[in-house]
Structure formats: C-alpha cells, structure tokens
Amino acid sequence: MRPFLSFSLLFLVIIGCIQRAYGQEEQSREERKLENERFDDALIEKVEDSEEPDKVLHAEPLYIDLIRDLGARKGEQEWNLGFGVLDRDGYNEIEALIEYEFAIIDRLGLEIEFPFSFFTVNEEGVVQPENKLNSLQLAGQYTLVVSKKAKFSFAIGYLHEFEFTSFKQYGKEDLYKGNVFNPFAVAAKRWGDNFHTLIYAGPVIERLFGTGMSEIDWQINTNLDYMISGTNNFIGIEFNKSFEDGDFDMTMRPQMRVTIDDHWMAGIVTGIPVEQENEGLSMFVRLIYEPD
To answer: Top-level CATH class of 48-289?
Structure first.
C-alpha cells in the first residue's frame, strides 16, 4: 500500500502544480486582456476627447492616403516620406515622395506633395522612361459628418496636380505640361474598437497642354483594417480599383502600420496586381512623423 500511497500523493501534487500554473496563465491572460482593453479605451478617448471638436478614430490607408485625418482638429500636422519599387514591363519604377499635411481650422485639412519617379531597365531593347518630378500636388479635404455614436465620418475633397516634364527636358521644353483634376469623397466607419472600413472614390481627369483631350479614370479605393489591441498598430488590405474606357484594373495592397515612438510611425505596403496590365509586384514604405 505504501508505494501506492506515495504514488497517489505524488500524482496529486503534480496535478495541483499544473492547475496552479494553468490558473496563473489564465490570470495572466485576463490581465493582458484588461490591459489591452484599457489601452484601446485610452487611445479612443485621446482621439475622441469630448472637450475637443468631435472626431472618430479611423485607420488611414497607407498607399493612397487621406489629405488629413477625418475630423481633423486645428493645428494637427504630419510629415510623410515615401519610398517604393514597382515592377513594370521591362523596367523598374522607383517611387519617392515628400508630403506635408496640416489642419488650418477644425475639419479642414490641406496637403502639399512632391512625388518623384526614377527608372531602371531590366530587359534589353526596352526604352527607359526619363526620371522626373511628376508634379506638384495641392489638396484640401473637409469632413462634413462626424458621428461618434455611429463611429462614422464622411468627407469631400479636391486634389490638383500641376504635371511637370522630365529632368532631362528642363530648359528644352515647357516645364509645366498639364493638369490633373481629382474631386473625391471619403466615407469611413469603425466597427467596435478594432475593425475599420473606408472607401475613397472619385474621377481623375488628366488634361495635357496641346492635346485638346481629357482622359478620365474613375477610381474606387476600399480598405479593411484591424487595429491590434493594446497598440496603435494595424494590419489590413487596400484595394485600388480604376475604370477607364471600359478597362478595369485592380491592385491588392496588404499593409501594416507600426508605431516607432510617440512621434514616428512606419507603414509597409506590398502591391499584388489582380487585373493590371504591364505591372507586376511592388513594395512601398511610408515614414510618418507627427510633431507635438
């Protein structure tokens, strides 16, 4: 009987230790869950502070981003640096951008952006496009609707591009080549504390000098994002869709945003063409700086 009793006692001790460890793990999980929930509540409260003009926390697209946060408050500002590589038919396009956005009054955001394109050939016989500063972009966005109860925002805006010739043609032809007109609308909704959806749509009308013609490209961009509990980070996907003269193009862009410190964030985007001519995979990185 003694060996049996000894074995029984040992078995009970082991079971007790396992239960204790499991209970501590469950408690630790509950503590982490509560801590994450407190962080999420604090983040939402910080953005949607009742003492300030109404604003709803939304996840912002990382590739085709907004002019400013929906419901932007006076004085908010942000700097962006973007770098990307796009595989085109026979050559690579290297994208770069410098962007500054700010809110001059509540709900009205303005933006100035300088997008660049540089090219490298990866196949013989392919004519390399010329490097250039693509344009000067000026834009404004006004948030018409902010509903904290519905966790919904709606805005309208306008983006204008002054298109430029390539660096090689400076001094040989006119610097200013034409205009791009882009009125748009944005609607966004947060579902609970973590899930975010957004749609950004409007026509892009390009008119080059001397052609007498305009090209119209209808763009509809949609986003689905999940903001990770306990952080300001999110993962999601952006769908960039365009319709021009009966032709449909779409690129899927899985993406994530990570917080570096109180002022810096980084966005990482991959591009996967679904219905896209002469375009392959791409990668884009956006560095975001928010001053005090």
So the answer is: mainly beta
